[in-house]
Give the backbone structure.
Amino acid sequence: MNPSAPIRVIVVDDDPMVITGIRGILQAADDIEVVGSAASGEEAIEKAALHYPDVVLMDIRMPGIGGIDATERLVNSTRPPKVVALTSMDSDDHLFRALEAGANGYLLKDIGPVELAIAVRRVHAGESILAPRSMRQLIAKVTSSADHRLQREAAQLLAALTDKELEIAELVSEGLSNQEIAERTFMSQATVKTHLNRINIKLDTDNRVRIATMVVRAQKI
């Protein structure tokens, strides 16, 4: 991958006005190129095979093959893009299903222009992202039951972290990005990524949502 090449994006939505708006926002960024758009899940799969995007912004609710099924097919393709689920509905059900299908992020369509471009960059860099209130919803849902066994297991795993790793895990649970964590802890983003890799190994997790869930569970003891 050429680090200087723009991030190639496909926008998928059955509302042409949404596509036009998102395309306009992203094309204003020098490091992002919208290489195609699609109005259905079927068309998204076809366009991805044609353009090989780095990131697909995927509407969840569409006729035919919906966004969730299209996401699952894309992430299991030969050259899988990162997929960010987009929806106007703040729904637990859609959130869970999108993440289970392999989405790397979940954002609401009312996200601001600057935040949208930042989200594309973060996902392309390997981060998983959630709209802040979606992150809170997901963690609240997952940790709502008073399962003392899971809470103890989470606490035991977190006990294996160093003080710095625990601090970073707690900042992840607050929804902070790598850049925000780096600024808060006076470290470089590369150092933050190194710590996150170690945290994932120690906690047997593979994304930020699971790290955050572990932290919240342990706090409930």
